[in-house]
Structure formats: structure tokens, C-alpha cells
From TrEMBL:
InterPro entries: Leu-rich_rpt (IPR001611), Leu-rich_rpt_typical-subtyp (IPR003591), LRR_dom_sf (IPR032675), LRR_domain-containing (IPR050216), LRR_R13L4/SHOC2-like (IPR055414). PANTHER family: PTHR48051, RAS SUPPRESSOR PROTEIN 1. This is Disease resistance R13L4/SHOC-2-like LRR domain-containing protein. The keyword Repeat applies. Coiled coil: none annotated. Keywords: Leucine-rich repeat, Repeat. Residues 169-247 form the Disease resistance R13L4/SHOC-2-like LRR domain. The keyword Phosphoprotein does not apply.
Amino acid sequence: MAKEEALSVEQLSLRDQQLFNMPKEIDDFKSLIFLNMMGNSLESWNYDIFNLKHLEVLIIKQNDLKYIPEEISNFQKLIRLNISTNKITALPKTIGSLTDLRFLHISYNDITSLPETISNCGNLEVLELDHNQLRFLPKAISNLKKLSTLNLGYNQFYEFDSDWLLIEELKTLNLEHNSLKTLPHEIFKLSNLETLIINNNKLTELPTNIVSLSKLELLILSNNSLTTLPDNLSKLTQLKTLILIENNFSKGEIERIKKELPNCNVYI
């Protein structure tokens, strides 16, 4: 493609092209809004990519990248960043400069912690961190007031951080395959929660206040060590699906649960 033609291109897909390096001519595409380079074998960055000042969507998942350069902050208009399924161990502090970012997908990497600056991404709505090596999140995560989906599945969390309870707009919280033993009694503060996924943890009981999650529609608790659920399950009037497979409920407790939730599909 001629350089003059590249200047007017707004969308470019280089998906599954067996690329080992980012194209040398990448910064010829000055008007790019959407760039997809997923499914290649990229191991390093062509820093000219950070000259794409108009980029709103960058999909670079399923590659072999080990880091994200600090220059990521150049993408001031970026709305969606998908860099899942790479070999990244950390995010740069400059990620906090992406104040328009709404969707951040960094699943299937080797990330052990997040920078405090991520709290500056105040427009973030979806944060997918599953399949990493996280044990905690920065306290400032509670500043993400617009966050509606938080996926922390398949990490190494041992406790439910009280700071998460301050993310009031949260609708979906996924904590599957961690090592949680308890949930906080203040979980009722997540008043907009619609989906709560906590299967494959080490829970032995649930807080009684969980029945105050009046908007809850899906609750997955399979593969824990539960023997009973709190009283007053009937308060969960919006609950449509409850999955309890592989726990230790008695026959009588199962009957009670089903009786209190007559309009819910209960899987045991």
C-alpha cells in the first residue's frame, strides 16, 4: 500500500498473519482508529506504533509480548486495550494516563500486581484480569467508580478486599478459582451486583447479608465446602440461577433452598 493511501486508513486488521515483528511502516497509518494484531508471534514492539495518536481500539492478544512500554500513554484516545494471552508480568505506571479507557483486557498473562495509577482510569467499565498471578489489588481500585465488570478468576486471592466493596456500580464480579475462605459481611454494599461467581474456592459459609443483594440474578458457588446457605433466601427475588454443585449440603438443606427460591433454577 502506498504511503499516501495508508494515511487515510482508519481500520487495519493484521490478525493471524504469522508476524514476528510489528510492520516497519505502522506509523504511516496516521489516521488509524482500530488496529488488530491478534494471533501472531510478536515478541517486541515497534515504538513507531505510539505515533498513532487517533487510535481508539488496540487488540494485540495471543502474542508473545513480555512487557507494555511506558509510551502506551501516547494513546490518549484509547477506549479498548486487549493484550490478553501474552507473557506480560507488569503494567507500566503510565497506564493511568489512559483516562478515556473503558475496556481493559489483560487476562492470561503473568501479572503479579497492578500499579496504583490504574485508579486514574476513571472511565474504566470492564477490567478483565483473570488467569494471572495476582494476590491483591491496589487500594485505589475503589476509585474506579464506573467499573461494572471485574474478572479476577484464576488468580491467587486469599481474601476479599474491603476496598472492592466501594465499587458501587459493579454488576459482575468473578472470583472463581482462587483461595477465598470467607466473604465480608459488608458484601451488601455491592447493591448493583447482578452476577457473582465464586466457584472453586474454599468457602465454608456465606455472610447472612448476601441476601441483601436484591439485584442478583446469577450466583455460582460450586466446588466449595458449603453445608448451608443463609436464611431468608427469598429476599433474592431477582435470582434466576443458583449453582451449588460439589458442596456438602444435606438433603434437608437442599429442600429448604429450593423451597425459598421457587422461581430460581437451582443446580446441585
